[in-house]
Amino acid sequence: MAILPRLPLLAILLTTLLACANAEDRQSATATIHRFALRSSASVHDDSNVTDAQRYAKWLTQRKPTRRSTAMRRQASPGFVSDPDSAMMRVADTSSGQGVGSLVYSSSNNVWTVSEEGSPTTITLNSEIPGITTRAYQQLMSNADSTYPVLGIGQCNSGAPVDIGSGSSNVLCLLNTEAVGTSPGSVPTQLSNSLSGSTATYVESNIWTVNYSSKTATPTWVNPNGTSVEAHIVVAVTNSNIIFVTGDVAATSAAYGLEFREVTLNFSILES
Q1: Pairing mode, if any, of strands 228-230 and 134-138?
Q2: CA dist., res. 231 & res. 152, Å (int)
Q3: Cross-strand partners of 268
Q4: Spatial distance between the Cα atoms of 103 and 107, rounded to a whole number of angstroms
Q5: Where in this protein does the record put region Disordered (predicted)?
Q6: How would you label 250-272 residue by residue, b for 16+ Cβ within 10 Å and e otherwise?
Q7: CA atoms within 13 A on the CB side of 114
């Protein structure tokens, strides 16, 4: 009977504790909601206090990372031959892959021909870099002509067209040009060469894309207006000594009354 008067006091204490706990929960919930609401409002709706440097930093954090190996592959390779390999260049039909002959430089009349019997002229190119399959804007050196040592493409004669492309029957010729060459990606430049001698005609030299996996060298020509054109090396079906470079194989065949076929230059590295 002595403990009955204590029951009201115990009830009062329990009621007070529960009220305090509920008040703290409400305050915590209110503070949490208020905090996130402010963050959302500042980042999405109000950027008046954000500086350009902060915007740039935010943009950087949203970019996908670039792998170091990918960045290396994106770098342009130097065009000049600085780490040389010697190679032989053979010619194959682009469609069938069947061999047509060897790429041979004739010193007697200073022209490139495709020969089924002659030994291929030695070409010097940049060595393969581990991890890099293709190198663009490369220079190929010809060991057949000390005066004009760089293998390039240019006018077949002074005054001939310099632009090629789809729908055009204009042609260019393989030639050797002087050692200075042309810059990678540049428009045609007047240099003396094996076809014109001391008379400078329009040529390009740092035009070769070398694929070390397929062992091919393919040219890209830049027209005078700065547009790059896929250049097709073609030989006459009935006479492989007739070799041109064109932007349209069918148009060239129709214009010359000869059937031309596109060919690919395949190289094989010589043992040192």
Answers
A1: unpaired
A2: 12
A3: 88
A4: 13
A5: 63-83
A6: ebbbeebebebbebbbbbeeeee
A7: 26
